[in-house]
Amino acid sequence: MTFEIFSFRLSSKLNTANLMPNESRIEYPGAAYHVINRGNYRADVFATDGAREAFIRTLDEACVRSGWTIHAWCLMSNHYHLALSTSQANLAAGMQWFQGTFSVRFNRFRKERGHIFQGRYKALNVEAGRALGSVCHYIHLNPIRAKMMDMAQLKKWPWCSLQWILQPRKRKPWFEAEAALRQSGELADTPAGHRAYVDYLAWLSADEEAQKNQCFERMSKGWAMGSHDFQKRLLAEMDDARLQWVAGARELAWEKMLVELKANFSASDMSQKTKSADWKVALAAEMKRQTTATNQWLSDALGMGNPFAVSRLAGECRAGKRAAASLEKLTAKGRP
């Protein structure tokens, strides 16, 4: 069963970095993320072992300073992936120190100036459990998916956390293998479990349908990954105006507002089931006033048939030609 990927923004109820609305990070204690960034102009930042070692040393310091847990990591030639959890709401502060410190050290060693990374890192919120495990698998398989190596080579490659799973003595205190192992068949953190995990990754790397079910093609897109319930829990804490900034979150914001508006009608009001029932027309008119909800979405959500009719009926309602009493029920109490 495929889990969902979705996008949203923050409200004042959650801790945010001091950023523009469309750049805010979703931060709260215990949050998990898939963090990605690329070299500026796709430059090969990690072309040498020295640069890779410096990155891991700086990551070590960042995790100790910030209290982070790393579930998976991988260094490619021009970008990196991290699956991490924060014990505090401190992703933005920790990443600012981490990337800034690595950049200074990199430039000092190379005797260069300028930006190392292409811009702000991407950070997708991830639900604990299956979604986080899938992110770990995706990160571990990055070199194979990029056709850099096969599984036999990946097992020995030092710049991916798969080797830390296979060789626990190499792990840092802030690394934990449970997220990857549990979500590949409840595997134990034992030699037998480690071998079974390699077998699981080998199967997953060759099964396109399995990768599709785990949303591999969208692991670096959107703003979050997880179940619909995870999405709704976070949406309940967010400001509707901010949700409107991001495609992918809009439909979730529309759904949330529609539920709130429906609460103004009684069961008797909504007993009319026709496509042009007054309560449906009034809801469509008010949704179009307050949001950017499309005619197609409103038609599907309200059962109003032809999307073009939605636009006409909502226009007539706003002009006072129909469903005036129903519209009054929505506007009398002000905006939800």
Structure write-up:
With 336 residues, this protein is of the alpha+beta class. The protein folds into two domains: 4-241, Alpha-Beta Plaits (2-Layer Sandwich); 249-331, no CATH class. It has 16 helices and six strands. The protein has helices spanning 49-66, 91-110, 130-140, 142-145, 151-156, 162-166, 178-182, 191-206, 208-213, 228-235, 240-243, 250-262, 278-290, 295-302, 307-318, 324-331; strands spanning 4-6, 32-38, 68-75, 79-86, 122-126, 224-226. A six-stranded mixed sheet has the order 1-6-5-2-4-3, with helices on both faces. Helix 13 packs antiparallel against helix 14 (295-302) and helix 14 (295-302) crosses helix 15. Residues 5-23 have low confidence and may be disordered.
Radius of gyration: 24 Å
Helix percentage: 40-55%
Write down the CATH topology of the largest domain: Alpha-Beta Plaits
Could you describe the largest sheet, including whether it forms a barrel?
6 strands, mixed
Topology order in helix (H) and strand (E) letters = EEHEEHEHHHHHHHEHHHHHHH
Key traits:
336 residues; alpha+beta; Alpha-Beta Plaits; 2 domains; six-stranded mixed beta sheet; 16 helices; elongated
Sequence-ordered SSE layout with sheet pairings:
Elements: E1 4-6, E2 32-38, H1 49-66, E3 68-75, E4 79-86, H2 91-110, E5 122-126, H3 130-140, H4 142-145, H5 151-156, H6 162-166, H7 178-182, H8 191-206, H9 208-213, E6 224-226, H10 228-235, H11 240-243, H12 250-262, H13 278-290, H14 295-302, H15 307-318, H16 324-331
Parallel strand pairs: 5-6
Antiparallel strand pairs: 1-6, 2-4, 2-5, 3-4
